[in-house]
Design brief:
Elements lengths: L1 H13 L10 E4 L2 H19 L5 H19 L27 E4 H9 L23 H8 L5 H4 L2 E6 L4 E7 L3 H12 L15 H5 L13 H18 L17 H6 L1
Parallel strand pairs: 1-2
Antiparallel strand pairs: 3-4
Helix pairs in contact: 1-2
């Protein structure tokens, strides 16, 4: 895929007067990977350019590259707010010079969502209310989990299914990481949700999932779904949103990848 992007970009550079600038985007979940791929792409592209450059052009290119490295050293890869701060706030404001674009799925979502005002989103945001919060796992664990009823989160066992036997462990407090994964990956993010009007599985469908294919909470699905309902209610009241709430154009309540497929 990277070499295909390289070929498309190089073709444009050699025939820029005849074709419009291709707007290519490389999307990944990892900021580190996005940066490494962009770095590799840039090196490959520059290696194709140098054959036609004069010695003076090559010296200027080396100096420019050194300055870029110095600037990159000042960037904190763990600084979510300032990562790719060179980009405009909205996707519609991107210029040809921003492409090819290498960024994370979350950063792409931020750019696209900025083109929609709050009334177009499915979030219950009130005037003078704090800005929307994206519910990552850390937000879920620190700000949601402590407010769920303890009868739902404590004193439960997890069921592990092995090929020849079922082993149930009781009196184990639910792990918020496993619950968040179940909500985002199964209730709101599994393939079965694509046929749902709400963007998530209803209780009956979730509780009837195969124990063999979805074993983690096979005997606690009623409780897990109750936690999911409490999570949805609290999230709606606070105007927050998670990865499964994101949408493009009219594809409300669908995952972003589903919107692109449409």
């Amino acid at each position: 895929m990277l070499f295909k992007m390289l070929w498309i970009e190089r073709t444009f550079q050699m025939n820029s007067g005849d074709v419009s600038k291709p707007r290519q985007i490389f999307v990944t979940k990892s900021r580190v990977l996005a940066g490494k791929v962009e770095e590799y792409f840039t090196k490959l592209l520059e290696s194709l350019k140098v054959t036609s450059k004069s010695p003076e052009d090559l010296r200027n290119l080396v100096l420019a590259k050194r300055n870029q490295v110095d600037d990159d050293d000042l960037v904190d890869l763990d600084d979510e707010d300032n990562w790719r701060s060179d980009l405009p706030r909205k996707f519609s404001e991107l210029q040809d010079s921003n492409f090819p674009l290498f960024l994370t799925f979350d950063r792409l979502c931020d750019l696209i969502e900025a083109d929609f005002n709050t009334s177009q989103r499915g979030y219950n945001h009130k005037e003078n209310q704090e800005p929307h919060t994206f519910v990552s796992y850390d937000v879920f664990k620190d700000h949601y989990w402590p407010h769920f009823p303890q009868r739902l989160t404590k004193g439960l066992g997890l069921l592990y299914i092995f090929p020849d036997a079922k082993v149930t462990l009781f009196d184990v407090q639910l792990d918020p990481a496993l619950v968040f994964s179940e909500i985002m990956g199964i209730i709101k993010g599994s393939e079965n949700t694509t046929g749902s009007d709400h963007g998530y599985l209803d209780r009956k469908t979730y509780e009837e999932l195969s124990e063999r294919t979805q074993p983690t909470f096979a005997t606690q699905r009623n409780t897990i779904y109750s936690i999911f309902e409490a999570y949805q209610s609290q999230k709606r009241q606070q105007g927050d949103y998670d990865a499964a709430d994101r949408y493009v154009d009219e594809a409300q309540d669908n995952l972003l990848i589903d919107a692109f497929r449409a």
